[in-house]
Each structure stands twice: as C-alpha cells, then as structure tokens.
Amino acid sequence: MGINLKGKIALPFKLCSFELRHQKLEAMSKSNFFTGQPIFTQLLKFIPKDLIKRLSKKHKTDYYYKKFDSYHHLIVMLFASFQKCNSLRELISGMLVWQNKLLHLGVKHYPCRSTLADANGARTHEFFEEVYFSLLKLHKNKLLPDSRLKKEDRLYIMDSSTFELFSDVMLGVGANSKNGKRKGGVKAHMMINAVHLLPEICYFSNARENDRIIMDKISLPVGSILVFDKGYAKFSQWQQWTIDGLFWVTRMNKNASYEVIQKMNVTEAQLKKGVISDEYILLGRGTTPSTEKISARRIVYYDKSKNRIFTFVTNAEHLKPFSIAALYKRRWLIETNFKAIKQNFQLRYFLGDTPNAIKIQLWCALIADLLIRIVMNLAHKKKKNWAFSNLCGLIRMHLATYVNIIAFLISPVKSLRYYAPPKTQFELQFDST
Question: Where does the pLDDT of residue 421 fall: very low under 50, low under 70, confident under 90, or very high at 90 and above?
Fold first, then answer.
C-alpha cells in the first residue's frame, strides 16, 4: 500500500496481468536454474579478482588510471569478444544497454570511446598474456576429461596462422599490391594440447617472421610428443628435443638430404594399412648447424582416402609405422582450432591500430575461448556434448540471461521454459498533496 505525506493510507496498487502471470510461472516452475546473475557474470567467476589485482600490480597497469582499471578493461574487451563487436562505437553502445547489469559484473563505470582507445594503446598486452596463462594453469584440471594419462594427453601440435590487417601496422609478407601499399598482418605462433585444444605456448609476431622463431621457446615434460609440419625444419633443434626426452613427428621435405642406415621389414598387415617402407636414416647435410646430421626414422605411407604418398620423419623408435601416420593426422586439430577462433571471435576488424591494441584483442579472444571451453567441458562431464561453434552462438545470444549456465547447457529448453527476468523493485510513491 502507498502512504502519502499526510499519513493517510492510499489504495493498494493492482498488479498487471503480466506480473500475475510472472508470479504464477515462477511458483509453478520452482526452478533451480535461476542464479540471480547473468551468464556473462558466471563466466567471469572463473577469473579470480585477486589474480587480476596481483598481475596488475606486477605489470603496473593501473598507474595513472582513476576509474578504468585493468579489471574493467578486461571485462570490456571480453564483452567485445563474446559479442563480436566491430568497432569502438558498437562496443560502447552495447555496454550502455548493460547499465542495469554492470554492478553484477563488478563494473561501476563504463568507459567512453577515447578512454578505451587510450587504454588499448597504453596498457601493456603482457598483462593480458599473463592473465591467459595464469587462468590456463588454474583451470587445467577442468579442461581434461579425467586424471588418467593417455597418449593424447602427451600430444602437442605446433603451427602458425596469420590474421590479415587492413593497414601496414605490422609488416605483412609477399609483394606489394597494385596500389603500392602492403597490407599488414599479425602471425600467431601456437602450440596446443591435443586434448583441450588450448594454446600452451603462444607468440604474436609480424606476419613476415619465420615460423621457426617459436621452436626454442618450447619446453615440455619428458615423453611428450610434438607434431609439426615441414616449415619447422631445424635439425639442431630436433636433436636437442631428442636429448631432452621429447618425441617429434613431422613430414620430410623433398629436397632433404639423408643416408639410409638400416631398412626394417614391413609386415603384410602393415602393408595393408598403407605402410610402404620403414627405415633408419642419417638426416642432414652437415654444412650448417641447422642442418647437422642427426639420427632419425623415415616412414613412407600411402593414404588411400587421399590417394597420396606421405613421407614422415621422426625420432620415435617405439611407435609402429601406422601410429606415426595417425599421430601426424592429428595435426589437423590445430587447423580446425585456428578456424574456430577466427569464425567465433571478431579478429577481422580490430579496435585499435597499434600493435599493442591488436595483441590485447587477440589475448582477450584467447581468454574468451578458454572460458567457453571450461564450461563446455563441465557440460561434457554431465553427459552433454556441445559443438564449439554452437556453444559460442548460444552464449553470445544469452549473455545477459539470468540462468545457471551449466543447467542451461544440459537442457536449454527446460531451463528457459519458465524463465523470467529478475523482478524490478517497486519504489514507494509519495503523494505531494
């Protein structure tokens, strides 16, 4: 009931039919899905605030900022990643729609375009890089199906992919175009695990940089298997990995120099699987340190499905020839991973034209990818499998929906059947007469 200033009791207000239906559905559903927080907030729960505070202090990223601190910056860029925003104007206007939900995100102030543009140019991308790898380390157990060690858990895949830019911010490759201008490009050098498909090593460089710059940055547990393509031909590094107890598998270049040391017998069963030959060789010319002669194993394999002959080279003596071919076939996982990132996150139009701003957007896309794969694996443990692209689209559409995300992924229709947004608080109306 309303109360006027004279102390008289006013007539009680009547609930509209929509509010009555709202309460009826809420009582009927007795839903356990409603959590009081939107899906975006639940995703942010996987990012501890004390971690952001510690890393911002380490990198000094909150110096000279009054309101728009590192945590606010991260949230805004993650919103841009999830919503695939094409411009700063689209991003800021999208955040304005969230004015009544910003407190749930821990955001008290939304930035203007100039503030965000300045932060993208000034706040170091190394902060976002360390946020990603810290979260990967923190949630790694949530990304693995179980604790049993399998061959796939020890399998790592290395490759690179180029994100083309419409300006010459970061130098691209190839000849100049007809108008005399060369498009820029940023190359992402990655090494992913074959189980969770997330980069455990990632390095961004100019597009014209050689792929081999990532090779000396790799450090893996003993017994790990590393698969890569022909672009990483550096025999001295291959030999160092052998000394470190790592196994590697790659394809052999046609012009590679080698000497056959021993030919192994190929059984009838192996021939049926496509194995043509299995040899131990001495690989390399020995003219330069990068082509020094090393001991290796050469396997020639015929792929019936593609009607092609492949020549593999490896240091894994304990694996069967067909297993070597099967391991290299898994290399395609990183290609599909690159494709998924490019299709589901906005990495065609960047929100800044400096290398730092571009790298910030790339790291935030990887953080968003990590958060989605965490909830995807949690749903998988509940016997509900999701395709990555479908899950990205669903989260993008329901980013502001107040529903438990895991229950939502297990049964979207059931969780939304009696869904109702949180009630709006009624304010007391005082009679001024």
Answer: low
Whole-angstrom distance, CA of residue 25 vs CA of residue 344: 35
Pure H helices in 313-420 = 321-329, 332-344, 355-381, 388-397, 405-410, 412-417
Yes or no: say if 115 and 68 are a contact pair by the CB < 8 Å rule: yes
Average pLDDT over residues 86-115: 80
Higher pLDDT: 118 or 19? It is 118
Q: How many angstroms separate the CA atoms of 19 and 10, rounded?
A: 21
Identify which of 322, 335, 208, 213 has the alpha carbon closest to the alpha carbon of residue 270.
Answer: 322
Mean predicted confidence (pLDDT) in 153-162 = 91
Q: What is the dihedral of CA 35, 37, 42, 43, to 10 degrees?
A: 150
DSSP code of residue 3:
B
DSSP codes, 183-248? --EEEEEEEEETTT--EEEEEEEETTS-GGGGGGG----TT-EEE--GGG--HHHHHHHHHTT-EE
Burial of 269 (0-12, 13-18, 19+ CB in 10 A): exposed
Q: Which residues contact 66 (CB under 8 A, 6 or more apart)?
A: none
CB 400, CB 419: distance < 8 Å: no
Start-to-end CA span in the chain (Å): 17
**What length is written for the chain?**
433
Location of structure tokens 């007391």 = 428
Q: What mean pLDDT do residues 426-432 have?
A: 49
Q: Region 166-171: what's the mean pLDDT?
A: 58
Given this model, what pLDDT does residue 168 score? 56
What is the DSSP-derived secondary structure letter of residue 290? G
Give the span between the Cα atoms of 76 and 356, in whole angstroms.
Answer: 16
Q: pLDDT averaged over the chain?
A: 84
Q: Indicate the range of 21-25, 39-43, 383-387 predicted with least confidence.
A: 21-25
Measure the CA–CA gap between 379 and 157, rounded to whole angstroms. Answer: 25
